[in-house]
Amino acid sequence: MITVDPSSPTPPFEQLRAQFVDAVASGELVAGERLPTVRRLADDLGVAPGTVARAYRELEAAGVIETRGRAGSFVTLDRDPIRQQAQRAAAAFVEQIRSLGLDADEALQIAAAALRAQA
Length: 119
Prior knowledge:
The protein is mainly α and about 120 residues long. The chain has two domains: about 1-75, Winged helix-like DNA-binding domain superfamily/Winged helix DNA-binding domain (Arc Repressor Mutant, subunit A); about 80-119. It is built from five helices and two strands; from the N terminus they run αααββαα. Strands 1-2 form a two-stranded antiparallel ribbon. Strand 1 (about 65) and strand 2 form a beta hairpin. Helix 1 packs across helix 3 (about 50-60) and helix 2 packs across helix 3 (about 50-60). The chain starts with 11 loop residues before the first helix and ends with a helix. The mean pLDDT is about 90. It comes from Microbacterium horticulturae. InterPro entries: Tscrpt_reg_HTH_GntR, WH-like_DNA-bd_sf, WH_DNA-bd_sf.
């Protein structure tokens, strides 16, 4: 979960940027996953939209996220076309699992079982 600590000496946009990088690195956010809109995240966190917009700009410049016009901002896909397809499939899987109300541990168990069954 992304948060902002107003008492931190680290500027809020940098807190957001670092937390998004960590979430992508840990797999909490997966390639192809859509990010909240600037306005919605700003409202949720109680910060100015410009703070979120700056964090998103820096993440995009670093290649962590990409903005697709009106479609929104997404975690960047890998440059390898095969990995891109796998990442899209994983993002679709996550979306389906969330809509079913299953937790991450159960989803991983289901995916692992399906992979073992195909081997």
